[in-house]
Design brief:
alpha+beta; Alpha-Beta Plaits; four-stranded antiparallel sheet; about 220 residues; about 20% strand; globular; Sulfite Reductase Hemoprotein, domain 1; 6 helices; single chain; 2 domains
């Protein structure tokens, strides 16, 4: 039998007795099968709160400790990390898939970035966002790695944070191809992984080292 970590992917709540979990929903895209499975689980385990998060995910809140692993088993254990020191998610706007303002394929690129970076460990949590046009609906400039589509390609941003000490990300490169944007993102995260302090978010990392030094190192 597989030895699963107890309470893996569970977040203790304010009441100190119940937990929340976040199933993985890449770029906030949902399927009928997932929704049916989610409904069955919520009803079966009488989960009291279902909350859409700011990261285009769904949190199931109020699960007793002794039921957490059973709920994950029913959901297939496709865990969306929410507290660990790793990439938590990639969010993306609709882009050219459906939006009349979209000029680049944000969903396609977001999926590629999630496949490449999800599950990798970093000094602190990392959030990535891809916007399909300069309207920046995916809040790319408030994420650790932000990519914004323009008519001339993709612009890459680094060091954004929407937290208590908010920071607008710095533009690292502009007018890149899809492949170049992915490569610059990889170089930024590699450099961050090697040089950041433990639990130092990219925003504080940029403030400590200076964005010019980071640009010089990775470009």
């Amino acid at each position: 039998m597989e030895n699963k970590p107890k309470l893996d992917g569970a977040i203790l709540q304010r009441d100190k007795t119940t937990y929340a979990i976040v199933p993985r929903t890449p770029m906030g895209m949902l399927t009928p099968d997932f929704l049916e499975s989610l409904l069955e689980v919520v009803k079966k385990w009488d989960i009291p709160i279902i909350k859409i998060t700011s990261g285009q995910r769904i949190a199931l809140v109020g699960i007793p400790e002794d039921k957490v692993d059973d709920v994950w088993d029913d959901l297939g254990r496709n865990i969306g990390r929410a507290t660990e020191l790793c990439v938590h998610y990639v969010q993306a706007c609709p882009g050219t898939a459906v939006c009349r303002l979209g000029v680049q394929d944000s969903l396609g690129l977001g999926g590629e970035l999630e496949e490449q970076f999800l599950g990798q460990d970093y000094p602190a949590k990392v959030k990535i966002a891809v916007s399909g046009c300069p309207m920046c609906c995916a809040e790319s400039k408030l994420r650790d790695i932000g990519i914004v589509g323009t008519k001339k390609g993709y612009d890459v941003y680094f060091g954004g944070n929407a937290g208590n000490k908010a920071r607008i990300a710095d533009q690292i490169a502009s007018e890149l191809t899809r492949e170049e944007a992915t490569e610059v993102s990889r170089k930024l995260l590699d450099y961050y992984k090697k040089n950041a302090k433990k639990r130092e978010r990219t925003a504080r990392f940029c403030e400590r080292l200076g964005i010019d030094a980071i640009k010089e190192a990775i470009l």
